[in-house]
Amino acid sequence: MTKPDVRILVLHGPNLNLLGTREPGVYGTTTLKGINQSLMALASEFSLELRILQTNSEGAMVDAIQGAMADCQGILINPAAYTHTSVAIRDAIAAVALPAVEVHLSNVHAREPFRSHSYIAPVAVGQICGFGAISYLLGLRALAERLGK
Ligand code: DQA
Questions:
Q1: Where along this sequence does the record place binding of substrate (predicted)?
Q2: Is residue 1 assigned to a domain?
Q3: For the domain that residue 24 is a member of, what is the CATH number?
């Protein structure tokens, strides 16, 4: 196994710490720990290092994105509810100019109308949604491809 030379910030937004028990009919039963374990297994296949953070705070998400500028090459982000509200997170992604992939467990376009608008999508490489925990793995694959891994 070669030493990882590319680091990705994996950022989980508010309420995603409750995955497993949170509205399982919408978000499935996989826990955040389970998602992170699958991501780490896939990352090692691509020789990627992951920095994983979950926070319920918008400011902490902005800080993490700004921090990624120093030592990460890409961002995998589920902004959760902030997807639909946060100009600050969108601006942070635009500011650091790192490739970012937006992921959602649920199909945000098939739910309440307010969920189909994303402030993040215009500054992301792309958006993947609707595949449950697999959305994250598809997103990491897409980012790996974008980063030439
Ligand atoms: C979510 C979708 C958002 O609309 C919601 O606020 C979430 C989770 C998803 O992964 O499906 O918290 O980002």
A1: 78, 84, 91, 105-106, 115
A2: no
A3: 3.40.50.9100
Nearest ligand 1 atom to alpha carbon 78: 13
The whole domain housing 12 covers 6-146
- Enter the tokens of residue 114: 């307010």
What total of structural domains would you count in the chain? Answer: 1
Cα 68 to ligand 1 centre (Å): 23
Quickly count helices (H) and strands (E) in the chain.
Answer: 5, 5
Query: Is residue 37 situated within a structural domain?
Result: yes
Residues 20-29 as b or e (16 or more Cβ within 10 Å = b): eebeeeebbe
Q: Is the pTM of this model over 0.90?
A: yes
Q: Which of 3-7, 31-35, 139-143 has the lowest mean pLDDT?
A: 3-7
Angle among Cα 84, 140, 47 to the nearest 5 degrees reads 150
Q: Is 110 exposed, middle or buried (0-12, 13-18, 19+ CB in 10 A)?
A: exposed
Beta-bridged to residue 18, according to DSSP, are none
CA-proximal residue: ligand 1, atom 8 (nearest): 80
